[in-house]
Amino acid sequence: MITISNKIKQFLVLLVKIMIVGAAFYFIYNQLANNNKLDWQKFLVLFHKNQSVLGIGFILLLSVLNRLFEILKWKYLASTLRPISLGEATKQVLAALTAGLFTPNGVGEYAGKALYFDKKDAKKIIFLNLICNGIQMLLTVVFGVFGLLYFNAEYNIITPKTIAVFFALSLLLFGILFFSKKVNIKGYSIEKLIHKINEIPKSIHQKNTLLGFLRYLAFSHQCYFLFLAFDVDLPYFILISTISCVYFLASSLPTFQFLDFAVKGSVAVYFFGILGVNEWIVIFITTLMWFLNVVLPVIIGSYYVLNFKPKTVQPI
To answer: 3-state class of 188 per DSSP?
Structure first.
């Protein structure tokens, strides 16, 4: 009976892994092959005109750095539970990214990473992943707000009254959170959350923040250099502030990883349309960013998913 049970478990695990990887490749192919807004002919003409081995290498390097900084963030945070190597951290991050491809805002990543640790540590892993993603979101919000203010100062798309109302509501929200930090809901409170955050060594928080900042610089400037490669000639601060706006507003919307480029693309088309940038260029760049920073890591992550061996499943 035990042997049959183990075989059934192995079969189910294999089936789930194949479904995850198969669905990942299906959605990737579907989005690239059936997107009518992608004019591949224009792209190839521009590519042959501006192709550069150094330029392509530099863009790919920024993708590697983007994911490397994320892996290092996880390595240092996970080390508060048990030390893990850079290779182990890479496996966990990329496999979790693949598993979270079909969940809203990559929620599946939390469960994906937890599978590599003992079941008793699942809550701690989910909390550490929350810290890992939280600092990235915080940086996106901070840079996004400054970018939006700079963009608005130049193009006046939001009235001063609306900005004042936004900041007033933000202060009100922070005030409510501050005065209700001791309120318990099913044993949880903001005060307890702050206490748990403070239990993590200060040096780990500093590394997490620095790596999050470097990661933000990597992907935002990758997008910036892609616009330059597509012959978009705009001042640096206007272009980078617009990119910050797009990432800030797109990150605020609930979405799935496999639809990430579509959400960012729609927001980007609006903002870059104000700057007079051709729609097809915006769509292509957001698709390229998605391909370089989601699709390629998912392809590598698929290997780790297929080779994942749960601790509870014994070999036949």
So the answer is: strand
